[in-house]
Amino acid sequence: EGVEKLYRIAGLVHGDLSEYNIMIWEDKPVFFDVSQAVKLDHPMARTFLRRDLYNIHKFFSKMGLDIPSAEKLYGRVAGEDAE
Q1: Which of 17, 22, 44, 70 could be joined to 54 by an S-S link, Cβ 3.0–4.6 Å?
Q2: Which CATH superfamily hosts domain 2-78?
């Protein structure tokens, strides 16, 4: 949900998202270290988004959570079918 808000509302892709750049505050995830975030029209934005989602999927899967694949998350966030 946080990645989707960053993408749809702020028009940004974090670009280096991992478990090390997420903190929980008042029961909500907070992203930090966003100085390298790129706008959606950046040539590498979709590649960075896929990488961010892969990193998040990998971490939470290791924690035993059943979450959609990174490609399904990409389709949800980007509002298109995963390529």
Answers
A1: 70
A2: Transferase(Phosphotransferase) domain 1 (1.10.510.10)
